[in-house]
Structures are given as structure tokens and as C-alpha cells.
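In response to a reviewer's request, we include the raw inputs and outputs for one of the modeled complexes. The two entities were modeled together in a single run.
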Amino acid sequence: MVSARSVSVTPSSLTYSDLPWIIEHREDRCTLCGRCTAICPKEAIYLGHFRQRIPKLDVFSTKRQTEYRTFTGIRQNTNMANSCIGCAMCEMICPNEAIAPHPNTSENRSLFYNNQKGEPYKRGGRRNVTGPTLLDRIMFDRISMLTDPALDAGRHEFNITTSLGRVLPPEEFLQKNMNGGWIPPTREIFPFVIGSMSFGALSPNMWLGLLQGVAYCNEVLGIPVVMCTGEGGCPPWVLRSPYLKYLILQIASGYFGWDEIIRAIPEMQCDPAAIEIKYGQGAKPGDGGLLMWFKVSELIARLRGVPEGVDLPSPPVHQTLYSIEESVMKMIQSLSMAFGHKVPVYPKISASTSAKSVLNNLVRNPYAAGLMIDGIDGGTGAAYDVSMAATGHPIASNVRECYLDLAKQGKQNEIPIFAAGGIGKNGNVAQNGMALIMLGASGVHIGKYVMQAAAGCLGNEKNRCNVCNVGICPKGITSQNPKLYRRLDPDLVAQRVADMFMSIRTEAKKIMAPLGRSQSLPVGMSDALGINDKAAAERLQIKYVC
Amino acid sequence: MCRLALKSANEPFSPYSVLTAMEAMKEGYDGSGLGLLLRGLEFEDFKYNPRFPVLSGIAHSKKAEYRLDEYMDANGYELKYDHRFAMRPGLIEAKDRFRYFLRAYRMPESYKEKSQEEREAKLLRTRIALRRIGEDNGDDLTVFSFYPDVAMIKEVGWPLQVGDALCLDDGQIKSRVCMAQGRQNTNYGINLYACHPFFIQGIATMTNGENTAFVPIRDWLLGRKLPGYMGYQSDSEVFAHILHYTLKELKLPLQAYKHIITPLSNTELDEHPQGEFLRGLRNVCKRLIIDGPNAVIGTLPDETCLLVMDQKKLRPATVGGRPGEWAIASEMCGVDALVPDRDPALDFQPMREHTVLIPPDRKELTIWSQLDPYPLPQAA
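The model returned the following C-alpha cells for the whole complex.
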């Protein structure tokens, strides 16, 4: 045994098999082109020169018997800062299939070292729970079979839109219509909304690609898709463009970007789709926004009115507020007024056991245009791992509870509930969304699915990639570094957005047609739902099927 | 398939003629129940004053009948006429029918000076109270309607057999309007209250097909917390309640019914002269959009009869007749049987945008299209 001092071992020493991802490199295939090391966003691999001893036993030789060869090879870094994130860009770029990361199936000791210099683990991404979600397990089982044939998804006319905005009770509508009272604004939108991802969290190419795709969906395909900006505003030219009507502008606790928005109001050609006031986010409830300094580029700094290269943490609550009641009074009303009471203003909260009380406050406020509830499976560009993994409430039962509460008051048509958090997490976006709609949501917001489907985000439930927070996104989706975001062609993103919404529309029809529904979105049609889990069926008040 | 037949004629006729027309339409199983609604009543043995409300229902025991009498007496209703059906009880499948009743009452004295609205509300409250009394006593009292000039009969079984059991062919009861429905239960159980037509405050509808949007519509109607918005043993009951809500609660013209249950699309509304109002109406009544497939046949207190289709028009119904005598039926052979001496070339099958009316004068059909101008109310 060698002495302890001759080996370099510290408490934080790690080796390959301690890391979450292990690079497998086949030297027999490698041509040493170096592309993998150049593209690795973490510098997790390096080209190194190595010397190999070639022992030879030749007793009659007078020459030195052992020979050496030198060669260039690829090795994996084992320090935390450069540990592989499994993004597999090396694999994607390798011309010879010589390299690939593999998830470490034995214990991942690096988990214990994610707090270097006292900083807890921060990342982007999602909750990292694999397997089917509760929404994935819901079946649509009320199929018209007896006297009424199922409809034809390909030939019948379908109406797949939902209302965003406060809807008056019919009596009040008629009375106000007759006497000229204020009728709150509503929008007819596609029930799958691109959820709030900020200009800042997303790269300019990604964000503009999305907007371009959304405009195409509206103007060419006739699918009235809207997208939410997230906190941080949007480019000044967009605010003054006709595309503004496809945008839900978000205001959050940092108020970033709102100087630009307020200044643009007099010059706006049209009204935005809505205003979302963010009080909470499903991925990190009770925590504020976080745009880390890596991503505060010159452009972002200008839009947000801050210096370049500083962390931009938004506080967990709106500092001017004492309570949600006060917020309902002040913020919703002032924002509604700022846009001439012509734009729906609604709050976004994280799913929580207190969602019902928020909802009941909104019911009593004539200016509140809806409620957006974001569940624990939602994604984020940056958050503490502990917030993402352990804080929050799943979306399904939260939405159901709120819907049933509204139905009890007969107000389910008045305040639309929008749901988010893990919709399409395993790819079943239309199924997940329609299940939530039948549980009582008027529509859903999707974020991660959009990043994955429209831009090829590499993140998955095994903590792959998830470096959105530090601006090194290898696909250029969440980076503010032009070298990275130029990898992403906005035109191709737009095309994928159109592909995605066309396919969601067809799948929604394929779900509605067998249920005999085509004329209105089946909001709250819980008699169509079944699940093979007794406890969940009971909680959601749907059928248990097995 | 459910069979629907409605006849409206200037000259009162026996409901049995409608049942025989239903027989012509028989195709497959639909023996889960028969419902009949008669308006413009005439009794052989009583000169009926059409102001008297008629209570229709079934007492399943002597005790139940006694309880009914007790309640009506206590509430000041004076019994004017108690119709006795000649019975052939052997033909009825159920064994617990003690007494089918059609009774005409005089309103309590205190309601003499009250408005029509108050009188109707009182009648509704009375009907619900009697229904509750029945439910509290093991369902031994079933009450279908309590309204002037409306009689209802409901029974589980084959339509013609039920007619024979109650000897409806004996000419004791006649009416100017008769709605009949033979039911094939689709999703919800076989139950007396689940038989069409459904009735609330003078408004009645019956339907074929299945209302796929039933649960969200029911949940919304229940949320109105209006008296009488209850039961929902059948998915078709909501059609009557939506019509009631449109006319009585929202006080909208009859044209609005079709705009509420099957609103026009955005492109159609863009062209419509009252598009803006109708778009708003669609929005606020979104939960009342039916998805069908259904044909809905209804009647109103003034003896107006109407027929509308769902948006996809996947259920059949035809209207035909001649001045003074009209019929609506789910099959064309039903219209033939009800009004044989008409010109079948003038029969009409409504499209998705139509509301067909047989007006009280029964001279000619009125056909409204949703694309026509909508009669907007004028500001006071």
C-alpha cells in the first residue's frame, strides 16, 4: 500500500464513476478531430497527450527493453465545475460515433458536493421525476357508442378555442349591454398557450422564433395561439408591432421591462392579449425570479433597465403589497386601467393549498380576468434545486378543487382557470392538456414541451443538461451568448411551432371526437375521465377504472 | 332509437292517435319509457276551465294519495276535477302504481290578484314540494307537472301498451297539442322522472339522441340555484331548463334559444348584423352550448311548437302538415301517420341554423334562420 501523501485525495475528490454522467470514448473510432471538446458547454472533456509504456521482454537485447508510445486521447474532467451534464452535444457532433455520455447507474456521489463555496445547487430545468405522471394515466373513457356514433375528427367542424377574460353572468351581461355598462374584455384563444418564458431566460433567436411561429399559427393556420412574455418585457419594436396582440405581457415582482412597456403604450398599434401578474411559479413557489449574471447581456440590460452582468433576482413577493387582497385591489385594477379596461388582467400563482382562497378573492373582484395556477412539475430557467424538487403542489387536484369550488358557486364560466406544470412532460401534450381541461381548466400553459419540441431542448427527467441558468445552453435556446444562440435558426423554430400546434389541434380533435364533442371545449366534462388509481379517482371525483 | 311525435291541431284529438303514429316509427328497442304531454285540454266528462292548473303524476299508494290531498288542502288549493283513467293494470310492467292522477285545482284565494309570474312561481314551488314529499317517503309520489292547461303522463314500458293500459283510446281526454316520446335510455337509468317530455313552468321539451355535453351543462344549471333546476335523471332534461332559462330568466325572445345552444361560428358572426351582441351572448352562455347529436322538440304555454337541431344535425326530425293540423316526428313515416292528408313535398327538415315553429294559429310554419337579423331589445 502506498502512503496517503503520495495520492491526491481530498474530501471533494471525485472520479468518473462518481459523476452523474460518464463519457464513453472509443479510441478505436476517434479520429481526434477535436469537435467534441470544442462544443462541450462544460468543458467536461479535453484532448490530452498521454504516454503509454509498452513493456517488452527480450533477454538477449542490449537495448532498453520497455518502449513508450505517446498518443492524443480524450478524457473527462472530474471536478464539479466541469462535470459532464449529459447534454450529448459531443455525441451529436462526432462524425464517427466515437463518444457519448451515459447516465451513471450506480450511486452519484457528486450530489454531496453540489454546494461548493457554500452555494447550494442551482440549475434550470424541471423536477426530475421519471415515469408517467398522473395526467398521463388519465383515460378518456366516455365514448359515444350506443345511439350516437363518435364524430369524425377529420371531417366534422371543430371549435377548439377557449375564453381568456372575465365573463359576466348572462343576466348582468344583458343588463349592461342594454344600459351601456362596462363589459370586461375577453379573448378567444387556443387553449394551449406558450407559457411565460422571458426574453432574457430565452435567447433572442428562440424568443423571436416563437413569436414568428405564433404569428404564423394565427395568420396562416387560423390557430389563435398566444404566448406569454414572462418577466422582462420584450423588444421595443414588438411592443409597437401588430404582433403585440399575440402576447400576454407578464409583470412580476422585479417589474423588469415595464419601463419600456409603459413608455410604449401610447404608440401601441393594438392591445396585448392579456396581462399576467406573476405572484408565484410552480417550479419554485415562494421564490422570485432569477436571471443570473451570465445572461444579463447588453440587450437584456437595456430592456430591463439595469447594468450589464449583474444577477437579477426578483423578490419572492411584490414589495408594494401587503396581501393578495390588496394586490387584487391595486395591481389588477391599475393594470386594467393602464390599458383602458380593454385588456384582461389575471394573476398567476403557484399551485398551493391556498389557491382556493386566492380564487375566492378574485371571484369578488370585477377586474380579475382569470387565474393561472402553475403546478410543481413546471419548469424554470434558474432556481435552487431544493425549490424545484421539493416545494409546490401537483396541478391536477389543485385545479380540480378550484373548479369544483367555482361550480358550487355557479361561477365556473366567469373566472377561467388556466393550468400549467408538467403538461407534456412525457410528450403527451394534447392528452395531458385535454385531461386538465376536462378536470375544469379553461386552458393550459406549456413551456418545457415548447422548448423541447420547437427548439430541441436537451433537458430530461434525468437531470440531463439543465444548465439554462448559466447561459451555456448548447442549443442556444437559453443563452445570451451570440456564439451559442446563433446555433438556433429562428425560422426553423417558427416552423416547429407551427408543426407543434397543428399536431396538438389534430390530437385535440382526436380526443374530442370519440366523446361526441365538437362545438365547445369540454371544460369540466369530468364524466369522460377515468383513472386506474382509486385514491386519485376519489380525490379528483372521476371514475376509477381497471 | 328514441321516437318523437308531436301533433298540433285546431280540433282536439285523442293522444292515442299519436301513440299509433309512434308505432309506425318503431324500430329496434325503445321500450324504456313513454311520456305524453297534452295542451289545450278537453275532458269528456268535465267542462275544463283552462285557467285551472292541472296536477299530473302517480300516487304509488293510498297513503301517498292521502298525503297529496292533505298538502293541497293545507295550501289552499280547491280540487275542481279528478280525472279517473279506465285502467287495464295488467298491461303495466310496474306493480306499484296505485293511482294515475290528472287533477284540476283552483288557485288559492290569496293568489287571485297576484301577477302571472307570482302564480307560476307558486305552482312550481307546489310541484317541487310534492315531489320532495314523494322522495322523502320512498318515492311513493311522482309529480310531473302542475300548470294550467297541461297534462302529463309518464310510464315505463312500450308506448302503445302504456296507452292501452290507461285506455287512452276511450276519448275521455283530448287536446290540441300532444307531445309523445318513446325512450331508449342511453346513459342514465330507467326512471319515471327520466321520461321525456320534461316540463318546467309551462315550457316542455323532448329529445332524441344523446347530449354529450350533459355534465358541464348540468353543473352550470345547478349553480344557478333556481327552483326547479333539479332532477337531471336524463341528459335531455337540460334542454327544457335552457329554454326556460332563456325565456323566463333572461327574458330573451325565442330566437335566442338557438343562438344559445348552437351559437354561430366566428366567421358567421363577423357577417351577422347583430354579430357583436351574439358573440357576447355566446360567451356568457358558453356552458349551455349543446354538442348533440339531438333534435329538440318543444312546446310553450301559448301552444307554439318548435323544432331545432344540434350543430351537426346528426339526429332526424321532420315537420309537415297543412293549415290547422301539423306534426313533428323523428321519422318521416311518423309525420305520414299523424297527418296523412298533406302534401309531403312541403315537409321540412330543418338545417343546423333553423328554428321551425308551428305558431298558435296553425296557419303556416314559421322558419327562422340564425343568420337572420336578431331582434335586439331596445334600451328603455
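As requested, we also summarize the result in words. The longest helix of chain A spans residues 490-512. Residues 135-544 of chain A form a domain with the TIM Barrel fold (CATH 3.20.20.70).
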